[in-house]
Amino acid sequence: MSTIQQNLQDVRSRIARAAESCARAPEEVTLLAVSKTKPVAALAEAIEAGQRAFGENYVQEGVEKIQHFSAQPQGAALEWHFIGPLQSNKSRLVAEHFAWCHTVDRLKIAQRLNDQRPADMPPLNVLIQINISDEQSKSGISLDELEMLAQAVAAMPRLTLRGLMAIPAPETDPQRQREVFGRMQQAFLQLQQHYPQADTLSMGMTDDMSAAISAGSTLVRIGTAIFGARDYSQA
Ligand SMILES: *Cc1c(COP(=O)(O)O)cnc(C)c1O
Question: Which CDD domains match (predicted)?
């Protein structure tokens, strides 16, 4: 078995153990394989091992991979999530190629994605990114701003508001990880009362997936634990 296949198996069992330890069903948690900077051969191995949902951070790189795999036998079964910071001038490529965008954090981006989503594609699945704890980061809105943006997104016909996403500041203490994720869980439950179609809480990465799952995450975004460390020196 290849390393990627083995890693995927290990990650799936970590997810299952984390879910079971808080009385959740493992199937409630989708595994998004974060493949940024990784070559198509690495993704092909993951696909071979049954992985179908992939997350990409860089628009151009993501579109190239989507186009590569759309010509492959498994292409139609793959689901592509854009999870990187999104600039206005790149929104069209996201609208035209991806199934999901996790990083909507302002009205202007939402409006552009809505306007640019092609009519022959299903509405783009959108998550609103919350800046829950990272003062260094300029991405994401505060919880105070959520109600207004959620209302606007939910009214856009070419977008479907599916929920919330967060990238907390790095934190090694599991108890502190859970506190931060707990605030996201509260916000998500409130959102669902107004928008029943919001079924996705995207949180948890390689180092904090268990804490995220215990706080109700329905989608973990895992890169390193599947594909190994990333090498940015070529970029
Ligand atoms: C890179 C990245 C991940 C994956 O992080 P790992 O620690 O490698 O699992 C998840 N989410 C986002 C938004 C990322 O940019």
Answer: PLPDE_III_Yggs_like
